[in-house]
Design brief:
This protein is mainly alpha-helical and 164 residues long. It has one domain (2-160). It contains three helices and no strands.
């Protein structure tokens, strides 16, 4: 056990000597490749960050364009809806005006038909009155009446005529 714990000066010398040779070889031949590897790694990380930044900027640009397109599409949709409402209101107004015009035309046609029927009825009434006058005249001429009888006879015929 003592030998393991015992440190000999030769062992220390050779350990330090080996370490210094290793250090010299490492510094002589290893620093350049390690520095190059670190530089490459640094450049790779820098390029990755730049690419990520470019991708982020591009994504923001695309997002902005998409938002603008969405907004313009929304505006177009609102305009289409407004045009549709105006068109439907216009069609409704025109249909209402046409219905009103047709109603007025039908009312006027009905008034004209009533007026024609009235005229026909008046013509028939006049014709019947004329026939009654002829009949009454025949009866009056057929019998000689006094003026008082004539008056009563005409009065009775007038009462027989239907009143409007």
């Amino acid at each position: 056990m003592d030998t393991i714990m015992n440190v000999s000066p030769g062992l220390i010398f050779w350990t330090i000597f080996n370490f210094l040779i290793f250090l010299f070889l490492l510094l002589k031949f290893g620093t350049k490749p390690m520095a190059n590897a670190l530089k490459k790694r640094e450049n790779l990380i820098k390029e990755s960050l730049e690419n990520a930044e470019k991708a982020n900027i591009e994504a923001k640009r695309i997002l902005k364009e998409s938002q603008e397109k969405l907004n313009s599409t929304q505006i177009e949709i609102n305009e289409m809806i407004n045009r549709g409402k105006l068109l439907s209101d216009d069609l409704l107004r025109k249909a209402s005006e046409e219905a009103e015009a047709i109603k007025k035309e039908k009312v006027e046609e009905a008034k004209r038909e009533i007026e024609r029927s009235k005229e026909i009825a008046l013509k028939q009434l006049r014709s019947e009155v004329a026939e009654l006058v002829v009949i009454a005249t025949d009866k009056i001429i057929g019998e000689k009446l006094s003026s008082e009888k004539d008056y009563k006879l005409v009065e009775s015929y007038i009462e027989q005529i239907p009143k409007n």
